[in-house]
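Hi! If you just cloned this repository, the fastest way to understand the data is to look at a raw example. We've pasted two of them here, unedited. The first protein comes first, obviously.
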Amino acid sequence: MEYEESIESKLLMTLTLIPFLMSIFIIGFATSVLGEEIPKQVILFVGGVFALTLIMTLDITKITIKIDDEGIKIKGRIGLLVRKRVKIEDIEYYKIEEGFLSCQVLYGFRFNLPAKACVLIKRKTGAPIVFTTNNPDEVSYALSTLGIPRAP
């Protein structure tokens, strides 16, 4: 059994990038009104910060969940910041709750984007993992097919 799902938040991407783009336009407008040239160091610094912000925003605004015979793989769009893999034999149980903020854990790995439900993976050793899904029934079926028990 193999299951794959992608969840994306365009609103989060927009809300993250708008303040940064506004600051770039304000700097450009202010320098054109003052009539002074922008030093190369400022341009390189602002460009570098923009590139890093863009890469981080692209990575955290889309996650792909893949469930197969080996385990669960969670990866961001690029995979630089968001990347986690759990083997089937390391999973103690799973729990699915309605609403993407309803899975409460004190510590652990949390991959939350707006979706219909959240899935809590309790590992035998290590921190629990929480991720969101728009298809909770299909995730439940895929995990049950692999022999992972559902939480009581």
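Ok, and the second one:
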Amino acid sequence: MPHGVPAVRTHHPFSWQSIQKHPKLMSRLDFAGHTYEIRHANGFVKVYTVKGIAYWSFQTQYGNRFPDWKLHFSIDSQDRWAAWNILIALFIERKCEFSMKIQYGEWPPHMRGREITVYIFSYHPLAERVLIYDPASRTERPVLSAADDRPGTFWRDFVSVAESRLARAKIRPAPLAQGDLPLGRYCSLRNEAFVRVGPEWRPPSSGWAGYDQGAAELHKCQWVYPENNAGWNAARHPVPFLWGARSRWGYTVEACLPPQKRAALRRWAAMTARRADAWFRGLMLI
């Protein structure tokens, strides 16, 4: 446990035992200077801070086109809530400030392996335009800043500790999510930023995020949730916390690409970074 951080109680408002006892209670937990809340919505239990609310608003305002990195944990259905207890305790212990969720409702086959999710914030100046109401001052104020973008070492350590604690508790893993980048026995990484598709594209299943049948009938391009076969970074955003560094799992991001693409990696990275910067600069004029 990091020096100076108090221990999280075994039984706290976000443990599975507490959730089961009061399934619709909007609990709050103040810990190490942060206030965490819980919400049940659309088949998920979500734990978040005010910055998590601001992040969701930021993504929605800009059509989910900004980097949307997430850690997914794939757990056997019989062990899922035991894994939740371990991971939510780690999430709060490490003072993560955005959101973590677990799925408990109906789950489509293409989403299997993403039952537990931890959100990772990647900073962009537009995030500071999101204003959240502050009851204390009775004014709206920005809550997101560059300081909220945690370094790669933070997330690599988070995954390493999570994998260790899950294994020690004999939690059984399930197959990792299709298309994700494997980070261990339980954890994988994916950028779920929406991608642009042509008017002829059709979703693999109903209710696909971002898809509008009316727009398709008008032969318009759309921005939609990426398919699994598009891979773990379909939007081709730079990977801020893994890029160019050897990870604890024994490979570099370069090694995760198909062999035929490794030689062109640097050109690909530079090109996508330039395109992303140009697009972001355009948004700044809105």
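That's it. A detail worth noticing about the second one: Residues 265-284 form the longest helix (20 residues).
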